[in-house]
Amino acid sequence: MNDTLEKDIARGLLSIGAVFLRPEQPFTWASGIQSPIYCDNRLILTAPMVRDRVEAGLATLVRQYYPDCQTLMGTSTAGIAHAALAAQILNLPMGYVRGENKSHGRTNRIEGRLDPGTKTVVVEDLISTAGSAVETVEALREAGADVLGIVSIFTYGMQRGLDRLAAAGTTNHSLSNLDALLEVAVEQNYIAPQWKERILAFRNNPADASWMNLNN
Question: How far apart are CA 182 and CA 200, in angstroms?
Fold first, then answer.
């Protein structure tokens, strides 16, 4: 991915408050982990200028890395709108994968037409531990799809996520990442320079809260 684009997307995310950096007052995840960062990429949909760059970027990722793609499938729920908008740019079909089968009607888990062997790319908004993305890939494979890989808006680059993707035999390409975002955040004074290494220490070992006490 082009370094300029990674930083441009990072600037956009910071400008609309889609990424919150609060190292001195960490967020608490459902797991109890204290995190200096929180992402809410749903805000992209309400910011047309940033949204346009993101959707064009996702379409470019598909063209560049998965040129044989025949359909896009969004993760439920955050990836659905982005899959639809990128599919419009690419003139491709799209659908989405539910977290579980519906309890009524046709009890579908995959919404949208998907013939066996269809070359498919998954669209995700955020990759952290990659759990939802990998579950989506597996559901599509069970349905007979030929899953080429994943495109996403942002990745933390956490080792657990990288390991899960590798174990699933799939690849992810993101528009931006934590390293690029922290560079921009320091340049634009969102955070003090000394917090950059502390936040990277969190990324490298999220369960270890010692990043809050590093002497930088």
Answer: 9
DSSP state of 119: E
Q: Which residues contact 141 (CB under 8 A, 6 or more apart)?
A: 147
Count how many Cα atoms sit within 13 Å of the Cα of residue 202 in the half-sphere of its side chain: 25
Q: What is the dihedral of CA 156, 160, 161, 167, to 10 degrees?
A: 160
Q: Measure the CA angle with vertex 125, ends 124 and 126; round to 5°.
A: 100
**What is d(CA 74, CA 82) in angstroms, rounded to the nearest whole number?**
7
Q: What is the pLDDT of residues 47-106, one digit of tens each?
A: 999 999 999 999 999 999 999 999 999 999 899 999 999 999 999 999 999 866 543 435
Q: Around Cβ 213, how many Cβ atoms within 10 Å?
A: 7
pTM of this structure:
0.92
